Amino acid sequence: MCNLYRLRKSAAEVAAQFGVLTPAQSNAGEEVYPGYPGMVVREVSGVRTLQSMVWGFPLRLKSMSPTAKPKPVNNIADLNKGMWVGLARKPKWRCLIPLTGFAEAEGPKGSKTRTWFSIKDEPIFAWAGLWRDSAEWGPVYSGLMTDCNEAIRPVHDRMPVLLHRDEYARWLHGSFDEIARFQARCFPNDLIVMDRTGEPWSKRKAGDGQAALL
Q1: Positions in the chain short of pLDDT 70
Q2: Which residues pair with 97 in a beta bridge?
């Protein structure tokens, strides 16, 4: 489960990487948490746009009080599940999530630290995502997860579905069967760069403190 990533590049640099003609202004921070805004690339009438959205689909559980805030569902466990399959089958709801690294918690409970992962020789890369409009938070997005490769296994058993540059168009326009294969493949071990740090995991409360994976 990925609950923290960062994008340490300007909107102009992201736009250049993803073929966006007009960079949009964003209030997203360098570190992105569930329930907070991040930058997303999507296509409108064949033109790629860069847009700020909230990371996580709002989910209200039956056990929650009517006044409680929804939980942000920021990770997609299975494209075939009911919450996602309808969106995934329609290219207009697919998006690319730009990032420069994602983090997992590592260490004993109470003193976990951040271990960051990035892609070798890729200052900016893409995470496969879906988005939609919501009544609660406006446009929202979530990222697709898969089983980890051997480079990430020492820290976690899951990882984001990462895309190579020549795969962006296939994710945005391919058939459902084509995009489902991304979740089944193993990302190359030798392209993953690991950076173990002493940064405490809980430097900032993410959203309402709870995120969900569906």
Answers
A1: 204-214
A2: 127
